[in-house]
Design a protein that fits this description.
The chain has 147 residues and is mostly helical. It contains seven helices and no strands. The N and C termini lie far apart (34 Å). GO terms for molecular function: transmembrane transporter activity.
Length: 147
Amino acid sequence: MRRYGEWLPVVGGVLANVVFGAYVGSFSSLLSNILDDVGVPYAEGGLIGSAFFAGYLISQVPFAILAEKLGRWKVISSGLVLYTFTHFFFATSSTWFEILVYRFIQGFIGGAVFIPSLQLAFEVCERRRSLATGFVACGFNIGTGLG
């Protein structure tokens, strides 16, 4: 049982990344509507993605450290819940500035999901760790495709 049980955290990491990826992926299909709603030219649409990934970049190391101190599942689950709330606030934004701010916050909180979920791969025996990491990372791409 231990042999298969060690893969449960990996399955959880994959599922967390599928949810996170679906949130991130849903943005792309809505971008033109968002820009039309607030009257912003398409040339500035890339700023929304840049705001997201700036927040995401800044939060990677702090959330990895926090996950080691508080526990991976606490950080991942809190991140998903907070991301859900910010997704709502982002969706109900009415100004260009609000959109950029909420997208930055979403990116920042996204760091609480991806890196700590990759750490779950270390629960698997050493010779299968690379495979486990690959599975966890693929979850994000699956979610993005579904989003």
